[in-house]
């Protein structure tokens, strides 16, 4: 009997932590990531968990006060786990979350943290509150004489479960079977809990558990994911590839709902910014001697320089599955021998490169997370200083960003300020959309109420020129000498 109770506690600890990590990962395509997102989800887990501990500890007292002496601890546990299972089947299913966040947008609720708060309130708070009652409820099965010893054991098993839920779910399951099957596994464990707690005559609970598992498996199956164009899903990205509606020969790649790459055999990327980089910065060096060293931070579909089999390219990204996804579904061919892939965070790589004294002729910054946003740690002065340190004299830094064309928001202004604090003489180009003409009088709306454009920053590394910060004034004007 004690063994069964400790298994229940272990599974509860695993499920709560795994649910927290899955929630952080699953909302990424719609909400993005960052300390603000993580803090809201952690709060939506820890606070109801604390209330669950307290509420579960007063179960007997509340039963006496309400005249519910007939309600057993086992039945209460079964009820809690079953309710949690049914809610989490929806809250951890990618296809249902697409419907949920789409509905929020259609209702005019577009602020991402508000969306996250609503998601957390509906799909996390109540299930975690229910599961949080497990330890105090299970404690009723132990003798009060050994309560302190049993409390220590119960907490240790719950913490051990949390440890496994953290490490095994993220490091092993998400990497090996994918995020969606990891969610299926969590629901499977909840169903196991129900079967462990249910008696033979409590068939309704077991039937509900079996139905929930079948539903979860169907909603998150490989076939279901492929029907959505998903070719890879792990702890970093949900990767989708599909043919363009306008041109069936053009393939598009989405990373976490963000249109990240395009590719047409024989032509390369159809995105205007990529065409510009190719025409003005990559084609002129296609046969250069000595070979140029090109560093691309943010691999996406590995389309940049696809035509170039001469110079050396190094693509850097945190997602180890990107290369295979791009080769098999976007490029439809293997990367050339002059293309290498390093699986590491962009900031960590350039920092290490700067320390090693590695220098590049060109560095392309093309790093995005969901919703056209850039990772916040790749927007700091310190990061850009490391990028500049890795540039050869005369080398180019090209950065792709999504921002306001006319500096109409704090983010655009402060990103520009940060870049210019490191790269003083910087070219800024507002790019038209694919197949569209840019109208400077109109704002371009791209998602969640933000009016934004594709903005390219270009910098040529000129250490001597960067020191020239002189200006022209009425008192001192050297214009004719400078010309």
Describe what you observe in this structure.
- By secondary structure, this protein is α/β, with parallel strands linked by helices.
- The chain folds into two domains: 2-227, Growth Hormone, Chain: A, CATH 1.20.1250; 241-466, Vaccinia Virus protein VP39 (Rossmann fold, 3-Layer(aba) Sandwich).
- It is built from 20 helices and eleven strands.
- It has helices at residues 2-26, 28-31, 35-57, 59-65, 73-91, 94-106, 112-123, 125-132, 134-138, 147-176, 179-197, 203-219, 222-227, 272-282, 322-331, 346-356, 381-389, 410-422, 463-466, 479-482, and strands spanning 230-233, 238-243, 250-255, 258-264, 293-297, 312-317, 339-343, 360-365, 391-403, 427-431, 453-460.
- It has a seven-stranded mixed beta sheet with strand order 7-6-5-8-9-11-10. The protein has a four-stranded antiparallel beta sheet with strand order 1-2-3-4.
- Helix 17 (381-389) links the parallel strand 8 and strand 9.
- It is elongated and about 95 Å long.
- The protein starts with a helix and ends with a helix.
- Mean pLDDT is 90; it is low at 446-450.
Highest CATH level, the class of the largest domain: Mainly Alpha
β-strand amount: 5-15%
Strand ordering within the main sheet? 7-6-5-8-9-11-10
Compute the CA-based radius of gyration.
Answer: 27 Å
Q: Can you name the CATH architecture of the largest domain?
A: Up-down Bundle
**Shape descriptor:** elongated
Question: Which range best describes the helical content: under 10%, 10-25%, 25-40%, 40-55%, 55-70% or over 70%?
Answer: 40-55%
How many β-strand stretches? 11
Largest sheet: 7 strands, mixed
How far apart are the termini?
90 Å
User: How many domains comprise the coordinates?
Assistant: 2
